[in-house]
């Protein structure tokens, strides 16, 4: 069986270009970050694969964004006698065929995917810091107006239950405590 796996980082993105034109017996799709392997459809795909199947993924960075996860996933699948095929890189890994050049490419390209993820996170942190400096990134909008927050504080000081206040103001109990600390 050909078992496909597609991944994009957010719900707004589309997996349409991944594995386009391939006839798959079963396909799994996640719309989550590749920062780790805690992805429901990835885990389901790995569990679904049986001896003799081929696990097909568009590219290595769609499977994992760090080298250790990539190597572990490929090892986990090939140890079950499942072939792992990366379409973009034109590489296939099997338990029976140890190709040193393919292994080197897996490690090199996996390292680049990990490096790219690090760069993305660094640029994101820099962008947030710059936005904060110019006052454009102030965090999430407060749930309560200053008047409602003052009212909440008065009522809590008068002894009303925090959970009842949270329900009435439609905020979490933790938010109640946050407003009380301010």
Any overview of this molecule?
The protein has 182 residues and is α/β, with parallel strands linked by helices. It folds into two domains: 2-129, Resolvase, N-terminal catalytic domain (Rossmann fold), CATH 3.40.50; 146-181. The protein is 49% helix and 13% strand. The protein contains seven helices and five strands. The protein has helices at residues 40-48, 60-63, 67-79, 100-133, 146-157, 162-169, 173-181; strands at residues 2-8, 26-31, 54-57, 83-86, 91-93. It has a five-stranded mixed beta sheet. It starts with a strand and ends with a helix. The model has no long low-confidence stretch (mean pLDDT 91).
Draw up the topology in text.
Layout (H helix, E strand, L loop, with lengths): L1 E7 L17 E6 L8 H9 L5 E4 L2 H4 L3 H13 L3 E4 L4 E3 L6 H34 L12 H12 L4 H8 L3 H9 L1
Helix pairs in contact: 3-4, 6-7
Summarize the structure.
This protein has 7 helices and 5 strands. With 182 residues, the chain is an alpha/beta fold. It has 2 domains: 2-129, Rossmann fold; 146-181.
Descriptors for this entry?
single chain, 182 residues, Rossmann fold, 2 domains, five-stranded mixed beta sheet
Q: What value does the Rg take, in angstroms?
A: 24 Å
- Strands in their spatial order, largest beta sheet: 2-1-3-4-5
CATH level-four homologous superfamily name of the largest domain: Resolvase, N-terminal catalytic domain
- CATH fold naming of the largest domain: Rossmann fold
Given helix and strand content, the structural type is alpha/beta
Report the total helices. 7
For the largest beta-sheet, the strand count, sense and barrel status come to: 5 strands, mixed
How would you state the average pLDDT, rounded? Answer: 91
């Amino acid at each position: 069986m050909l078992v496909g796996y597609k991944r994009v980082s957010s719900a707004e993105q589309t997996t349409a270009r991944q594995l386009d034109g391939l006839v798959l017996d079963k396909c799994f799709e996640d719309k989550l970050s590749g920062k780790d392997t805690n992805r429901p459809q990835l885990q389901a795909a790995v569990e679904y694969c049986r001896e003799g199947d081929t696990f097909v993924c568009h590219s290595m960075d769609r499977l994992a964004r760090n080298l250790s996860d990539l190597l572990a996933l490929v090892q986990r699948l090939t140890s079950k006698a499942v072939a792992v095929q990366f379409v973009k890189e034109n590489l296939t890994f099997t338990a029976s065929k140890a190709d040193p050049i393919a292994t080197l490419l897996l490690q090199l390209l996996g390292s680049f995917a990990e490096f790219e993820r690090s760069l993305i996170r660094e640029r994101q942190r820099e962008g947030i810091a710059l936005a904060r400096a110019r006052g454009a990134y102030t965090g999430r909008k407060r749930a309560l107006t200053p008047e409602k927050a003052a009212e909440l504080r008065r009522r809590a000081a008068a002894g009303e239950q925090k959970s009842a206040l949270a329900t009435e103001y439609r905020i979490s109990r933790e938010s109640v405590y946050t407003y009380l600390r301010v």
